[in-house]
Amino acid sequence: MEVGAISRIRNSYLMTYPVHEKCLVCGSTDYGVLPAEYAHAYLVRCRNCGLVFGSRIPSGEELNEHYGKYPRNNNLSALTIKRYEELLDQFEPYRKTNRLLDIGCGDGHFLAVAKSRGWEVYGTEFTGEAVEVCRKKGIEMHHGIIQSWTGVKNFDVITSFEVLEHITDGREHAAAIHSLLRTGGLFYFTTPNFNSFSRRWLGGKWKIIEYPEHLCYYTADTVNRLLVDHQLAKLDILSTGITLRQFPNGTSHYAEREEELRSSIERSAVLRFAKRVINRLLSALRLGDTLKGYYVKT
User: Fold this and answer.
1) Residue 3: what pLDDT?
2) For the whole model, what pTM was predicted?
3) Which DSSP helix (H) or strand (E) runs through 255?
4) Which of 68, 90, 206, 211 has the most CB atoms around it within 10 Å of its CB?
5) pLDDT for position 2
6) Which domains does the chain show, CATH number per domain?
7) Three-state SS string across 57-118, please?
């Protein structure tokens, strides 16, 4: 980064706290501040690889306070269980050691479904409360980041649902995933797509853009670079869905409508076909709200 750039970034956001001096994916020091509409999340873009991330480094106190307020949710719709079952069907060809690890597993809903299918399941979580919730479901848990994992290795499958956007140590994170997978094992992840139609339409009003909830904003290209740099080879990366609840001032209203829409689509063969067509188009154009990646350890 040129002399004085860090100071200019601090001045742009009136910051007196620490900022990242290097890109979180490629390590470049050449990046610039995004327009003012993104200032509430302190966003910058790397001029080398294109990664968008929050320049402000949150304190441990900020993160503990934020994640300590996370709600616990024991309700799981039949449709969500069905989607988990479909995903687990895709994982069956990788089932050798019978071990499955979910990073940032929340309340353990996905792992509970996997456990019911005979998988030996493991999870990680940031807060002690979430760890205890999962342990009560019979899930072997690790309290802390994946880099501090000291348990079993050689996982067939490692999953990461909406986690990558929460962390700023992506390179160390990817290296840990590589070390824990067996050769030929699968890493499956989902994360918001910064190049989505919703973000392009809403700009800084896109509800995904929130500090310190989200700290890194990937595209298909930037997440691919992160993983390939750590010997994880791409099988496929999809970009699907437009999530109504991510629009401003619509969390509760749109969440309810979205569940109704999901149920309606499930009941109609015509709507299911239309959904597949739309998702293929969104993936082809890389405009869907969610990136879904399938990578194997080489």
Assistant:
1) 40
2) 0.91
3) helix 251-267
4) 206
5) 44
6) 5-57 (2.20.25), 72-297 (3.40.50.150)
7) CCCHHHHHHHHHCCCCCCCCCHHHHHHHHHHHHHHHHHCCCCEEEECCCCCCHHHHHHHHCC
* Residue type (1 letter), 156: D
Surface-to-core class of residue 215, CB atoms within 10 Å of its CB (0-12 exposed, 13-18 middle, 19+ buried)? buried
- End-to-end CA, the chain: 33
CA 110 – CA 72 distance, rounded (Å): 14
CB 206 within 8 A of CB 198: yes
Amino acid letter at 257?
Answer: R
Task: Report yes or no: 188 and 160 within 8 Å, Cβ to Cβ.
Answer: yes
- CA gap 198, 176 in Å, rounded: 32
Residue 266 identity: E
How far is residue 255's CA from residue 224's CA, in Å, rounded to a whole number? 30
Residues 167-200 have pLDDT tens digits of 999 999 999 999 999 999 999 999 999 999 999 9
Averaged over 249-263, what is the pLDDT? 64
- Residue 15's Cβ-count burial label (10 Å; 0-12, 13-18, 19+) is middle
Q: Is the peptide bond before 212 cis (omega within 30 degrees of 0)?
A: yes
- Compute the distance between CA of residue 53 and CA of residue 49 in angstroms, rounded to an integer: 12
What tokens does 221 get?
């290209």
Q: Please work out, in degrees rounded to the nearest 5, the angle formed at the alpha carbon of residue 46 by the alpha carbons of 246 and 40.
A: 40
Banded pLDDT at 82 (limits 50, 70, 90): very high
Q: How far is C-alpha 105 from the chain's CA centre?
A: 11
For tokens 């969104």, the residue is 282
